[in-house]
Amino acid sequence: MKSLKLLFVAIGVSFALTKSAHAYIDPGTGSLALQALAAIGIGALFYIRSIGQAFKKLFKRNPLDDINRDVRGE
What we know:
Number of helices: 3
Strand content: under 5%
Helix content: over 70%
Largest sheet: none
Structural class: mainly alpha
């Protein structure tokens, strides 16, 4: 609990003593950040889709098993 209080005090002091950075971010930097976020999002969608397809394949019934059962007379 004491460390949590110390953390809040440190955060409060850091917010109270902030100064302006006077930095400039050009439009190209914003575009690069947007492209990076889009790439991360699309990559995550493909990854999630591949996991979903693996689960479908795992639980999918194989139609060849039915054909083999019919041929063997089971």
